[in-house]
């Protein structure tokens, strides 16, 4: 007697503002075996990015012409926000040059609306997932820190630019935290680089535990980390998160039977209050972090205070 394995349905995020095209896409999926798929729709880029913050998807099917974004920049925004998810473009534009550009920018396939029946759509989805899985190692090397698994400086910069663009569009605030570890160098020097690497990995996990799904924590080099906090409704929330991080870093780290004690110095800047410019916002948070060092370490300073 053979046992039939029931595989998990493929979760698809369809980013499409035309409800007629959404209906046709749903019909094509049903034609190819709708029980194999779970479909979620987002009708603009901002909604898609929010859904990607909250849920996990196996593949994204993306229209390049949305109410709040157009062209290859739409693909770039989605890829930077969720580099771990394969993307298929689904568009009315039959442009070979655009198709090549899209593939060069990380899309796994390119489908023309009205030309993709159920069989073609199903094949494209499965091939996209397989190809993406095959290239995942290269993707992680490009966008993620090899030691901690956190986003690296490149992905941090892209996500910050995205967060500021969205905040400007919807008149929201974004906070940026710069974190430098106090006492890391003595640990690294006295106990060796292997122990230092273990400590950085544990720090990364604790930082992740302090944040929301919509936040980003990145390692930008050495013992420096950054946090992007979008959708800030009250400035007091920044202080709450910063002190949550300080408390997490103050707890002893148990590494190979040894108790390690460190702390953190945190600098914060706020968009658009401190600056509407990405580079200046980074510079202000960095300056505030150094001000925290001068104030005795293990504290948080805001950029307005550091500039006094």
Task: Describe this protein's structure.
- The chain is an alpha/beta fold and 308 residues long.
- Helices cover 47% and strands 23% of the residues.
- The protein has helices at residues 19-31, 45-54, 72-81, 96-104, 118-134, 136-143, 153-170, 184-191, 193-209, 236-250, 278-294, 303-306, and strands at 10-15, 37-42, 59-62, 65-66, 69-70, 87-91, 109-112, 173-182, 216-221, 224-232, 253-255, 258-260, 263-271, 300-302.
- It has a five-stranded parallel sheet with strand order 2-1-3-6-7, sandwiched between helices. Strands 9-10-8-13-14 form a five-stranded mixed sheet, sandwiched between helices.
- β1 (10-15), α1 (19-31) and β2 form a beta-alpha-beta unit.
- α1 crosses α5, α2 runs parallel beside α3 and α8 (184-191) packs antiparallel against α9 (193-209).
- It is elongated and about 65 Å long.
- Residues 1-6 have low confidence and may be disordered.
Question: What's this entry about, in short?
Answer:
Helices cover 47% and strands 23% of the residues. It has helices spanning 19-31, 45-54, 72-81, 96-104, 118-134, 136-143, 153-170, 184-191, 193-209, 236-250, 278-294, 303-306; strands at residues 10-15, 37-42, 59-62, 65-66, 69-70, 87-91, 109-112, 173-182, 216-221, 224-232, 253-255, 258-260, 263-271, 300-302.
């Amino acid at each position: 007697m053979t046992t039939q394995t029931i595989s998990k349905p493929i979760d698809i995020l369809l980013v499409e503002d035309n409800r007629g095209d959404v209906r046709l896409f749903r019909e094509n999926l049903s034609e190819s075996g709708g029980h194999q798929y779970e479909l979620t729709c987002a009708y603009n880029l901002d909604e898609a990015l929010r859904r990607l913050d909250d849920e996990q998807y196996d593949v994204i099917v993306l229209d390049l012409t949305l109410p709040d974004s157009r062209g290859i920049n739409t693909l770039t925004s989605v890829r930077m926000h969720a580099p771990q998810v394969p993307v298929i473009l689904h568009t009315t534009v039959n442009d070979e040059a655009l198709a090549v550009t899209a593939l060069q920018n990380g899309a796994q396939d390119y489908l023309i609306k009205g030309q993709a029946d159920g069989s073609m759509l199903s094949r494209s989805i499965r091939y996209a997932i397989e190809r993406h899985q095959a290239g995942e190692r290269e993707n992680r090397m490009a966008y993620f820190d090899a030691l901690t698994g956190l986003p690296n400086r490149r992905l941090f910069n892209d996500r910050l630019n995205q967060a500021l663009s969205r905040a400007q569009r919807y008149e929201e605030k974004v906070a940026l935290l710069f974190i430098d570890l106090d006492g890391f160098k003595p640990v690294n020097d006295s106990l060796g680089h292997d122990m230092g690497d273990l400590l950085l990995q544990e720090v990364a996990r604790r930082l992740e535990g302090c944040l929301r799904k919509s936040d980003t924590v990145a390692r930008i080099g050495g013992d420096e980390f950054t946090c992007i906090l979008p959708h800030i409704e009250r400035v007091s929330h920044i202080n709450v998160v910063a002190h949550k991080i300080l408390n997490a870093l103050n707890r002893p780290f148990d590494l190979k039977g040894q108790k390690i004690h460190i702390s953190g110095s945190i600098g914060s800047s706020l968009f658009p209050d401190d600056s509407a410019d990405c580079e200046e916002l980074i510079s202000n948070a960095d300056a505030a972090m150094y001000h925290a060092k001068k104030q005795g370490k293990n504290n948080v300073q805001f950029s307005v205070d550091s500039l006094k």
